[in-house]
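Reviewer 2 asked us to include a model.

Predict the structure of this chain.
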Amino acid sequence: MRKVTWSGPPGAGAGERRAVGSDVLRGLSLSLACVFMTCCAASEVATGPVAAVEHRKPAIPQYLGSRRALAPPPAGVLRLQRTLDLPRGVNRSDEGRLYSEVDGMEMVLVPEVIYRAGTDEEPITDSMVAVPPHDVVVGPLLMDRHEVTNAQFARFCGATGYLTEAERGVGTGYGGGPDLNWRKPRGRGSSVDARGDWPVLWVSWNDAVAYCRWAGRRLPTEAEFEYALRGGLQVTTFPWGNDAVPSKYCGNFSDETTRWHRGNRESEFTGVAGYDDGYPEDSPVALFEQNALGLFDISGNLWEWVGYAYDAEGYAGAHRGNPAGPPEDGWKVQRGGSWASSHKALKCTVRTAYRATFSVGDLGFRGVMDIGPRQPE
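Predicted model (structure tokens):
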């Protein structure tokens, strides 16, 4: 296992990753380490580390079969959603929950808000680019409560005949072709037949955009995703608060289970010590706590594509705006960290980037839907 720092120029190799916000451990062995996830409402920020756990083989819950019923969003979110003028293609339950007519995805309302994005921290490494603090306006919009699942992506492919870039062998990354793609996430002999509620893997930015267009949505901007990571908290280091270790069951990160899975090689472990989510790699969506906005897995489980082309200056130039990104240059930003990320990669301001054709086994996406005019760039 090697530690990779991605800091190449726009002309760098096709499989090379550009780090914009932290050290990120990533490789196709899919046994790396770390990740975090959003959880806890603003009033429920973790107050201290969880107790240390033994290095043991975890009891991994088995696949739960048909789609599980998700916990409802917070009461305040439901109250706003009950009075919302619905955009086309969205249904509302009597309770106030919102669902896409196309793929059944539950979405939650993110109302218009001004928040302080970016950080004034010094770069942790030479590869980190600090985006200065700045005010950003996001919303109103609807955001998918969790990452797009295998079952939902299969519906898209069945309806359109779409083949991912990995399936067609035209993508870049750690794999691809007939034996390593979203249908065979662990390589030859693997299948998604029993992984309907798992997030879809091995999808490029181009694949994610194609799905969102079919579903009547788009990828979130960086500013939108960072606000979602913060979970309504204006100033917070990690999505769960300012403590180094998240609360129990906060998300799927690189943790004690990942350490055990990798043979407890202490010198290689850079994850969240003292935390144990029970999953050595990816997990089904929405198993852990939702955050104050009603979002699951916005941090942790998988990195997620955003609809933003990479720019070293980030989105700091748009004071109180919500930019969709600089002109297309082939590099696209990812946010949120995964089950394989280092602890440093879990901060709300961390940004990484890959080419739009790139896919890997700890990268997915979710969509958003505008319900009002976009903020000017």
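Confidence is low (pLDDT under 50) at residues 1-66, 124-128. Residues 1-44+67-377 form a domain with the paralog of FGE (formylglycine-generating enzyme) fold (CATH 3.90.1580.10). We have added this to the supplementary material.
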